[in-house]
Amino acid sequence: MAKTIMIVDDSASMRQVVGIALRGANYTVIEGRDGQDALTKLDGQKVHLIISDVNMPNMDGIAFVKAVKQMPNYRFTPIIMLTTESEDAKKREGQAAGAKAWVVKPFKPEVLLGAVQKLCLP
After folding, report:
1. Is residue 28 over pLDDT 80?
2. Which of 27, 49, 58, 65 is geometrically suited to a Cys-Cys bond with 34, CB 3.0 to 4.6 A?
3. Which residues pair with 79 in a beta bridge?
4. Is there a contact between 109 and 89 (Cβ–Cβ < 8 Å)?
């Protein structure tokens, strides 16, 4: 059975690029337009990994990670931040919120897939 990964990004083109890479590696993909939209889609179904942008309207990625970690069904779900943010302070903030990895845009699909494979173990 394919593992399910949620992509959270306000950019439709970024969701598309990440989705193509993940689907090509046989993952099932759920998409959220921002943190709020993504939270509504976390409805109890099994999600093996979340990939989230940091800078988004309505609810940014850090607030989203904090909200996910409060949900009993998802508090142990690994989260990768995929963002243009590269400052150490922002990375520490993401890590403190519960993010497990940080990938900076622009990214190489193989780098992202490598991080996904490490965190999406059987």
Report:
1. yes
2. 58
3. 50
4. no
Alpha carbons 62 and 93: distance in angstroms, whole number: 7
Three-class DSSP labels, the chain: CCCEEEEECCCHHHHHHHHHHHHHCCCEEEEECCHHHHHHHCCCCCCCEEEECCCCCCCCHHHHHHHHHCCCCCCCCCEEEEECCCCHHHHHHHHHHCCCEEEECCCCHHHHHHHHHHHCCC
Percentage of residues in the chain having pLDDT higher than 90: 95
**Residue carrying structure tokens 């943010």:** 85
**C-alpha to C-alpha distance for 51 and 83, rounded to whole angstroms:** 10
Q: How far is CA 122 from the centre of its chain?
A: 18
Extract the tokens encoding 72.
């009993």
Q: Which residues touch 12 (CB under 8 Å, ≥6 apart)?
A: none
- C-alpha–C-alpha distance, residues 79 and 99, integer Å: 5
Q: Please name the residues in contact with 11: beta carbons below 8 A apart, sequence gap of 6 or more.
A: 53
